[in-house]
Inverse folding.
């Protein structure tokens, strides 16, 4: 099997107050992500780290915490995503979760050009469904799904001309959602499974049901994996730790099922803060999960989807 994988470093650190995620892309490289993927007979093309474009034309019309840097990152990452998806599968090395404002926007553009629907799998302790108008903290890493599904309050950002349909979004791993966000989520068509649902039913059944819907619609699948999806016992290097997350085995099973589906068109690896890590432990966990999503397993099974 040969498949182009584009590694795109996104040293985004403007989506929240606690800094350190800008070191994430190089931590993944140090943890051996390129080598792990090449061992799977994948062609790995490392584009290096993206840089912020000129921000002089950005005038903030919204609340003051709508930082120009995040708008700039959204622009440059969306363009990079759209280009990379034309010749392979991009992996966005983050960087805080506001990078997905751009990565999924690029996926949406690509899907529209192909006349195919875009589906988004959000593996996260948080729903990230806020807008700049509803967020009490003002942290833009909590707004990507609000932006990408067309909620109001993002006038300064690139226009989302092809919003992701709410019913095409599935969030798995929820365990930290504030009251306004919970109300908005419950009033939406977004599919979501909190950790109680995972405890009761396992992770395989709801994930497979969502992937079946992607396949039936001939959709593209953008997977966004937040470090805090995993229990901090296994992955401590994140500024938004929430106990009670997915175990390592649950996380690997999710990645293996995604791999078996052959549907993933792009992958975000977000919220890794190496400053908070323990000898690179979390970077290694996330590297292993990315490898599982692209074919690594203890015993190979026939995979006719790839």
């Amino acid at each position: 099997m040969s498949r182009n994988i584009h590694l795109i470093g996104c040293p985004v650190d403007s989506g929240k107050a606690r800094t350190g995620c800008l070191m994430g892309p190089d931590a993944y490289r140090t943890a051996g992500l390129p080598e792990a993927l090449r061992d799977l007979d994948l062609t790995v093309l490392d584009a290096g780290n993206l840089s912020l474009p000129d921000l002089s034309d950005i005038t903030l019309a919204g609340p003051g915490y709508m930082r120009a840097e995040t708008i700039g990152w959204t622009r440059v990452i969306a363009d990079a995503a759209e280009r990379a998806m034309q010749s392979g599968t991009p992996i966005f090395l983050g960087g805080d979760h506001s990078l997905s404002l751009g990565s999924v926007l690029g996926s949406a553009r690509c899907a529209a050009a192909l006349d195919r629907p875009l589906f988004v799998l959000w593996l996260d302790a948080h729903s990230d469904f806020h807008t700049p108008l509803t967020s009490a903290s003002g942290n833009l890493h909590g707004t990507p799904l609000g932006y990408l599904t067309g909620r109001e309050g993002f006038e300064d950002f690139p226009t989302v001309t092809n919003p992701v349909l709410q019913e095409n979004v599935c969030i798995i791993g929820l365990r930290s959602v504030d009251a306004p966000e919970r109300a908005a989520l419950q009033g939406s068509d977004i599919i979501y499974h909190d950790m109680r649902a995972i405890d009761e039913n396992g992770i395989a059944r709801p994930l497979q049901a969502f992937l079946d819907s992607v396949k039936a619609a001939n959709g593209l699948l953008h997977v966004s994996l937040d470090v805090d999806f995993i229990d901090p016992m296994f992955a401590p290097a994140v500024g938004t730790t929430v106990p009670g997350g997915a175990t390592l085995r649950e996380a690997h099973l999710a990645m293996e099922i995604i791999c078996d589906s052959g549907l993933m068109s792009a992958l975000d690896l977000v919220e890794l803060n190496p400053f908070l890590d323990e000898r690179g432990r979390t970077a290694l966990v996330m590297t292993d999960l990315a490898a599982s999503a692209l074919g690594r397993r203890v015993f190979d099974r026939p995979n006719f989807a790839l």
Observations:
- Strands lie at 4-10, 43-49, 89-94, 118-123, 169-174, 191-194, 220-226, 264-270.
- The chain has one domain: 4-293.
